[in-house]
Design a protein that fits this description.
Shape: globular
Strand content: 15-25%
Number of strands: 8
Strand order of the largest sheet: 1-8-7-6-5-2-3-4
Helix content: 25-40%
Number of helices: 5
Structural class: alpha/beta
Largest sheet: 8 strands, mixed
Radius of gyration: 15 Å
Length: 181
C-alpha cells in the first residue's frame, strides 16, 4: 500500500536515505527482493561476485538462476578487501554483486563507512550493479554507535547502481514475510 511504502521511505531517513515511496517495491521477504534483483540484472551463465563466507541461501538462489559465482574473501571485522574486489572486477566479466555490508551472515562482518563508500564508487565506475542485503543492520546493540544503525551501501549511491533489499524478518517477526527493495 501507499502508506506502507511511505513509512518505509521515512524509515530510510534513519540512514540518510533519500527514497520516495514510489521507488519502493514491497516483496514477500528479502529473499524475494534479492531474487527479483538478480533476475532483473543477470541471465543464466552470467558471473556474480559475492563475499565469502556468505549466507547459504544466496548460493542456492544463484545456483537456481544458473549463475556462476566468484567469491571475495570477507574478514570478520572489515568485510571485503577493496583490492580483492578490484582484482576480481579486472579479471572477470562480473554482471552484478551481492553484498551484506552490515553483519554479514555467517561471519558477522561490518564494513566501515569509508570502505562502503569506496566499494559503491568502484562499482559505479565499472557500471556493475550492486545488490545489497541489509536485513540485519537494525539488530545493532553496540553502544559505540550511540543508537545509530550502520549505514547501508545505498547511503553512498549517487548513480543509482545499488539495489537495496531489506525486511523485518530479523527484527520484527519472521512470520510477517515482509520485505522491500
Amino acid at each position: 500500500s501507499r502508506e506502507l511504502r511511505t513509512q518505509l521511505a521515512v524509515l530510510a531517513m534513519n540512514w540518510q536515505g533519500h527514497i520516495r515511496p514510489e521507488d519502493i517495491l514491497v516483496t514477500m521477504g528479502a529473499m524475494e527482493a534479492l531474487n527479483i534483483s538478480m533476475r532483473s540484472l543477470t541471465r543464466a551463465g552470467d558471473t556474480v561476485l559475492i563475499q565469502s563466507p556468505t549466507y547459504y541461501c544466496f548460493l542456492q538462489l544463484l545456483e537456481n538462476l544458473g549463475l556462476r559465482v566468484i567469491e571475495a574473501p570477507s574478514h570478520p571485522e572489515t568485510g571485503v578487501d577493496l583490492d580483492d574486489v578490484r582484482e576480481i572486477l579486472d579479471k572477470y566479466d562480473i554482471k552484478a554483486a551481492i553484498f551484506t555490508p552490515n553483519f554479514n551472515n555467517p561471519d558477522g562482518s561490518l564494513m566501515p563507512d569509508d570502505v562502503k563508500k569506496a566499494l559503491v564508487a568502484l562499482f559505479a565506475e565499472r557500471r556493475v550493479p550492486l545488490v545489497e542485503d541489509d536485513v540485519s543492520a537494525d539488530l545493532l546493540l553496540d553502544p559505540a554507535f550511540k543508537g545509530q544503525r550502520p549505514s547501508p551501501l545505498k547511503r553512498f549511491d549517487r548513480e543509482g547502481g545499488v539495489m537495496y533489499c531489506c525486511s523485518f524478518s530479523k527484527t520484527l517477526s519472521p512470520g510477517y514475510r515482509l520485505g522491500w527493495m
